[in-house]
Amino acid sequence: MINITINNNKLSVPEGTTILNAAKSIGIEIPTLCYHPDQQIKASCRVCVVEVAGSRTLQTACSTPVTEGMIVKTNTEKVRKARKACLELLLSDHDADCVSCTKNLNCELQKLAMQSGIRENIFESILDEKEIDTSSPSLVRNPNKCIKCGRCIEMCKEVQGLNIIDYAGRGHDTVITPAFGKYLSDAACVVCGQCSVVCPVAAITEKEDIDLVWEAIDNPKKHVVVQTAPAVRVSIGEEFGLEPGSIVTGKLVAGLRKLGFDKVFDTDFTADLTIIEEGNELIERIKTGGTLPMMTSCSPGWINYIEQYYPELLDHVSTCKSPQQMFGAMAKTYYAEKINVSPEDIVVVSIMPCTAKKFECKRPEMSVDGKNPEVDVVLTTRELAKMFKQAGLDIRTLPEEEYDAPFGITTGAAVIFGATGGVMEAALRTVYEVVTGKTLEKLDFTDVRGLEGIKESVVDLNGTKVKVAVAHSLVNAKKLLELIKSGKCDYTFIEVMCCPGGCIGGGGQPYGGTNEIKLKRIDATYQADRDLPLRKSHESPAVKAIYDEYLKQPLGEKSHKYLHTHYTNRKKAD
Question: Among the options 281, 307, 425, 495, which is catalytic?
Fold first, then answer.
C-alpha cells in the first residue's frame, strides 16, 4: 500500500492508483472532461490538474500514479485558476448556445463551467462555424460543439472496431470527422450511437423525433400505440435521479398513459414471439442441414455491421425480424383487425435504448404492405425522459400501472433480451423443451451472462451437444465472424449484440453509463425475470393466442410474411 496525503487527509491506497481515484476514494471529486473510467487515459483536457508537493508544474490527476509520501492539493488558487483557464479556452472554440442545446443541463462542459464560476470568457471566440451533419437517420454530428476529447474515437475504434471517425488537421484546425470530411451517411457507420453515449457535450447526439410523437398524439384521427423495450425499464429511472438498475416498469407504463398514448404495450410480447420463431428456425436448420452457426438478428447495429463488413456471411443470420419490427407488423395486422382500425390510422411508437432502431424502422423491407411502415417513430430512452419532463411528469411520483392487453402479457425470457446473453438464454429455455420434450428445471444459463466479451456454453439436447456463443460489441463479433470465415467455428448458435453489455448499454440510454452502471442494469434485468410468474417464451398465453387466432404456426405462411425478412449486401466501395 502507498501512503499519501490529499488535502490534509492521510490515506493508504494500492500501488498504481491514480491521484484521481485516490481522491475519489475519500469523497473528493476532481473535475474531468477527457477522462472516462472505461477508456484509456488521455490527459489532454488538463481540467483535472492538481498541485503535488515538490513538482514544479501542475499534474494531471487522471494520469499521475501516487507515490509514497506524496502530498496533493486539489483546491488551491493556482489549481482553480488553471482549471478555469482550460475551460475558458475550450469555451472560446465552442458553440455555447446552452439554452437550445439538446444536452442542456446534461453537459459535462456546462457543469464544469458553472462549478468554476465562469460568467464571461476572457478569451475572444475563435469558433469557425462548421456544417452540422444531419445526413444519418439516427445521429446528428455537430463539430461546433466538439471539444476534441477523443472519447468518441476510442469508442468507435477500440470497442466497435470501426474507425469511422478520427482526428484530422492540426492545431486550431483539428477536427474529429469521418475520413476525408465525409458525412456519416457516406461512411460505413452502423449508427450504434456509442459515440453519443460517451460524448461529454453535444457534438454527437441522437436525431430527436419527439415532435413527431406529440403531433401523432394530438391528432384525433390517429390511434397511437407505444411499445417499450426490455432495457428501458431498468434505466430510465436514472434520468430522474433514481439509482442505476431501479426497476420502474409500472411507473413507466403510467407515464406513457399520461402522455396520451391510446395503448401502452410491451416489446417483451414480441421478444417472446421472436424466441418461438427463432428457436424453430434453429431447430429446422439443425434437422435439415441448413447454414450453421445461426446468428441472432435482433440487434440492428449488428445487422448494419454484417451487411456492410461481412455480407458474404449473411446466410448465417436468422431471418427473424427484431422484436421491435415484429411488434409493428402485428400491430398493423392482427391488432388492427381486432380493433377494426385501418393500419394507415395506427401510429406505432417505439421506446428503445438504441439509436440504430431509428434506422431500422425506416428500412424499406420493414413495411406491412410495401408502403406502410411497421414502426412509425422510434424514441430513445433519453428522448422519452425529455417528453416526460415536457409534460411535467416525474417518474418517481407516478403510480404503478399494468400494460394493456393483448400485447402486455410477457415472460421473464423476454425481459432478459435487454442484457448480453439474454436472447441466447431465452432461446435455450424454449429450444431445450421443444427438442427434448422435458421440463427444464434449471432456467438460469449463467455461462452466457456477464460483461466478458465472448462467452460460451454447451447444451445437451437429447444426447446432441450444442455449442453456443455470445458476443457483445462489434470488436468481439468480428472475432467470431473471422472464425466462421476460416472454417474453424464449431458453434451451432451465436448471439451478437452490437452494444457493450447488450441493450442495457445501448446508444440511446442515459448518459454516464459506465461498466459499473451497466452491471447494475443487468442485475436488475435478471431480477425482473425472476419476479415474473412465467419465464419461458412458449408458456406465454398471449403468444399462444396469436398463433391460434392469426399466425397458426411457427415458420408458417403468415409468420414468414410478417415476422421474417431478408438482409442485404450494403458493403460500400473502397
Answer: 281
Q: What is the CATH number of the domain that holds 145?
A: 3.30.70.20
* Predicted TM-score (pTM) above 0.90: yes
Q: Reply yes or no on whether 425 is catalytic.
A: no
What is the domain extent for residue 408? 211-563
Name the active-site residue from 215, 312, 344, 365.
Answer: 365
| Catalytic residue list contains 258 | no
The yes-or-no answer on residue 360 being catalytic is: yes
b/e map 106-131, b = 16+ CB within 10 Å: bbbbbebbeebeeeebeeeeeeeebe
Q: 235, 297, 299, 318: which one is catalytic? A: 318
Q: Of the listed 154, 238, 239, 278, which one is catalytic?
A: 278
Cβ burial 229-246 (10 Å sphere, 16+ → b, else e): bbbbbbbbbbbbebebbb
Q: What is the pLDDT of residues 117-156, one digit of tens each?
A: 998 888 888 888 999 999 999 999 999 999 999 999 999 9
Statement to judge: residues 7 and 26 lie in one domain: yes
298-326 mean pLDDT? 98
Q: Average pLDDT of 478-501? A: 96
Whether 318 is a known active-site residue: answer: yes
Q: Please check the confidence at residue 209 and state whether its pLDDT lies above 90.
A: yes
pLDDT at 574 over 70: no
- 281 among known catalytic residues: yes
Q: Can you name the residues that pair with 167 across neighbouring β-strands?
A: 176
d(CA 224, CA 264): 9
End of a domain among 179, 206, 233? 206
Structure-block grid coordinates of residue 80: 482553480
Whether 298 is a known active-site residue: answer yes
Asked whether residue 82 is assigned to any structural domain, the reply reads no
278 is catalytic: yes
Query: Which of 42, 145, 357, 518 is an active site residue?
Result: 357
Q: How many domains are there within the chain?
A: 3
Average pLDDT over every residue of 543-572: 95
